[in-house]
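pasting for ref
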Amino acid sequence: MTKIEDILLSEYGAASSIPSPVNRLMTDFAVGFRDACDINLGVGYVNERTIPHQAIRLACEKVLLHPEKYRAALNYGGAQGSPNLIASLRRFHIDNQIGGITEQTLSSRDIVIGANGATSLLESITHVLPAGIVLTADPMYYIYCNDLERKGFKVVAIPEDGDGLDTQRLKSKLAALGDEKAAIRFFYVVTVNNPTCTILSNNRKRELVDIATRLSHEVGRKIPLFFDNAYSDLVHDSSVEPLESALCYDTLGIVYEVGTLSKILAPGLRIGYLIGSKGRFLDSIIQRTSDIGFSAPLINQEIASYLLDHGIEAQIEKVNHGYQQKAKQVKTWMAALLGDNVQECRGGSAGFYFYLTLANVATGSTSDFFKFLTRTTGQEDVDGPSGSEHPKVIYIPGEHCVHPSGEMVEVGKRQLRISYGFEELAQIHAALKYMRDAIAYSGGKSKNAIEGLGKP
């Protein structure tokens, strides 16, 4: 009998059959996660208290009670998205002068709603643009960059500084590429970076638009510059200069901004949108959305439209106030509990992440620090007996956040991202105490002289 081979996979399918490092990490932890015991500082969920449950319920009722405005809200929607939501997003940006956007800014641009949040739009970009080089910041948004490389793109990550992606290093990298610049497909920049929550300054943003514009003229082809604004509505530090939209600097029609309502309303609504110049590229994104299921559920879009038209400003203020208070408290606790063991701390002014560089402690998945916090040291006095109430703490190791071929590989081994978004302050405080103990454990304490270390 002829041997039957396994299902034939595409190159992308073969690459996707192997879970990414973060996929494995979160899956392994989730399998044994114990509610009310273990603490998850790795997950990027928003805090449940920021989700306007009652307002969403009211919005759903209003939408269903007014079919003359919210037509066939429980049926299929068009591929570009709900006309109501698109109009609401335009008003939201213009009326609130988001990033300095005006009616004129949007007159030559359009808005497209994704099929399943902002990530679905990023994923669509990889289908409508040919594989090639993508330029981004390091540390990088690891989830999307992993996806890019599975699809055959080459990610070139440029280290960031306190103002975001370092444009001097970017210029040096472009010069070093020489003729390879013709293979550059797009720039991808997260304006409040994930994982570091470093805020891209307005001056740096202008420089990036200028660099992409000059490069487009040099290669004789428009090279798009995508700004991911996932956390841009969550700047809760009043000392930060108001963020300007890169659309206001764009004269060539190469800037596109990816936005989301996940962080200010609810991730479960799955509302992501793309703003950019009208033309073949946006048309291709709309067709891609049609191919994979029209658009986000129409009822969700109409609910989001209603919420944008009724009290969104107060909702954003409430969300930012909550994260501001948490950020201040967590930063105080980190200073008290981790002290000089933290070489550098980024974040705390926007979004809900802190990105730490430890002075002398490795943080990777094979490190003592990681094993201590996940209770996998093999020592019962640390891990606790089987079925014990010794809490586990999850975070995102820096080794997953820096590009494996970039300049930050070594320092990434001592870095970690922690979220102060999802868990409440009491759990975060407890987690930081365990991190203090994990640092002590990693620093050479006798494995037999740690009585009481890390116990609840």
